[in-house]
Write a structure and sequence with these properties.
The protein has six helices and two strands. The protein is an all-alpha fold. The longest helix is centred in the last third of the chain and has 38 residues. It is globular.
């Protein structure tokens, strides 16, 4: 294996881990949710490492820059659907899941449109956006696992973390939309 190909392999591993954590979650085996949470956690960790390694090794590419957020959105969407189905009687979980999915799709589309208008840097990922992603991945890992480990009930911690992630989701959604608004207005005026 070539070290320079590691970041792209890590990105692809997140996509491959989607069926793995889904199978683990629903498998009729002991500790199924533990294994599902672990698979999701490994995917979450690769989210940070692939970009870091790509920059460190100088192998960041247009394909990698495109695939990385796609892999992120796919695995998060799969986990949100599982969590929403599991906790379907909790309206706050449902609202959080819907808000997060709406924001992810909306901001991905906005970033794509801004890139086509040579203004991608206007909606570059902010530190608050990184905190949103980290809290979202932690919440989903904990909720997928849902059990107790080292005397901590991770499932119970997952609920407030998901609500925190949903709050950051709305804040960053507004933040990115506000930043893009001048470009949107300029585009509307030029087309009108």
């Amino acid at each position: 294996m070539n070290l320079r190909s590691l970041p792209m392999m890590m990105t692809w591993s997140r996509v491959v881990l989607i069926p793995v954590f889904l199978i683990c979650y629903y498998a009729p085996i002991e500790d199924a949710r533990y294994w599902a949470g672990l698979a999701f956690m490994v995917a979450a960790i690769t989210d940070w490492f692939d970009g870091y390694l790509a920059r460190k090794l100088g192998v960041d590419s247009k394909l990698g820059a495109f695939l990385d957020p796609v892999a992120d959105k796919l695995i998060v969407a799969a986990a949100l659907i599982v969590v929403a189905a599991e906790y379907h009687d909790n309206i706050y979980v449902i609202i959080s899941a819907v808000l997060i999915m709406m924001r992810e799709i909306g901001i991905s589309a906005l970033r794509e449109w801004m890139a086509e208008n040579n203004a991608r840097e206007v909606v570059a990922v902010s530190n608050l956006g990184k905190l949103k992603t980290a809290s979202q991945l932690a919440a989903l890992t904990w909720l997928l696992y849902g059990g107790e480990l080292w005397g901590v009930n991770w499932g119970e911690l997952g609920f407030p973390m998901l609500y925190f992630a949903a709050t950051l989701t709305v804040i960053t959604w507004i933040q990115y939309t506000k930043a893009a608004l001048p470009e949107i207005i300029r585009s509307v005026k030029s087309e009108g």
